[in-house]
Amino acid sequence: MPRAEARGRAGATVPFLLLLLLLAAVPSEAAETVAVDVGAVYASNEGASIDPALGTIRGKLQSMFNYTSYRMLDRKRRSLSVGETGEFELPGRRTLRATLLPAQGDKVRLSIRISDGPRNLLTTTLGLRRGGMVLVGGPSHQSGVLILLISAE
Amino acid sequence: MDCRAALMSIEAKADGLLPREAAAELAGHLAGCPACSAEDAAIEAAGPVLRALTGIRAMEKAPALDAMWTRVRAGIEEGREARRRSPWIARWVWIPAAAALAVFALLFYPAGTDRSPFHPSTFDVAVEDVESDVATVALVDKGEDLPRVIWIIEDAKS
């Protein structure tokens, strides 16, 4: 094999192996953590548009609530390990804090606290399955309300 | 065939465009017309003269053309030589650069945001406890196919 060709192959292989190593390192960490996803949806009767970013949850929202418009204002994801708290800023200077609690199997237990400045709007403890979702709604926003889509993977 | 038509046929013959029947007719006319025959002979003679002239011109320009081709060939060879001389590290320098970019993207990709649509696999949720200091909280459960909702009623607004 010509030397230049051998050098070329080595030059291409080393970075590829580095990338593989990096990618292989990610799942081992992901298995011990839970990705908590919080989407903030503005539901109102202004117009009649439904944000396509809501995916399959669009039909559920329409069948559960009487609003004509659903728009996702923000969406954030935090990877949490047990005992760790992730903070999610919400529209209207509100804050959601999620703490991952110990759980067994594919269960995920989350302690959720939503505050509006110093006011504690909600404190709850949820037990979900990985891939599950729960909605928290009601806080007023502009001429409608906020509906939070909380899911864990 | 009259002389006017014969002259047109002579020109067509010189251009190689005269049909066979017309050529026979022209030959008959030339046999009996000295003026047209002389014109035909003059035009026939012009071809070799023009070819000779073109050859002479080409010979005159040959040294200049040779010099230009030599310069072009030298330029091509110089480019090939430069590519052969370039160090292998310079040829493969883009690979570590691309790898560094990929690592940078993996490490600093904004994992805090996700734009893929929501596709929850289950709505099976247990609400262990729920409370609020400032609002009334309702737990809405409309069946397994729909997500459970914790609804916060602030000052009876919503």
Explain what you see.
The complex is a heterodimer of chains A (153) and B (158). With 153 residues, chain A is α+β, with helices and mostly antiparallel strands. Chain A has 2 domains: 1-32; 33-152, no CATH class. Chain A has helices at residues 3-32, 57-64, and strands spanning 34-44, 69-80, 85-90, 94-101, 107-116, 119-129, 132-141, 144-152. In chain A, strands 2-1-8-7 form a 4-stranded antiparallel β-sheet. Chain A has a 4-stranded antiparallel β-sheet with strand order 3-4-5-6, with no helix packed on it. In chain A, strand 5 (107-116) and strand 6 (119-129) form a beta hairpin. Chain B is α+β, with helices and mostly antiparallel strands and 158 residues long. Chain B folds into 2 domains: 3-85; 123-158, no CATH class. Helix content of chain B is 61%, strand content 12%. Chain B has helices at residues 3-14, 20-32, 34-85, 88-91, 94-108; strands at 125-131, 135-140, 149-154. Chain B starts with a helix and ends with a strand. The interface between A and B is large, with 55 and 49 residues.
Short description:
The complex is a heterodimer of chains A (153) and B (158). By secondary structure, chain A is α+β, with helices and mostly antiparallel strands.
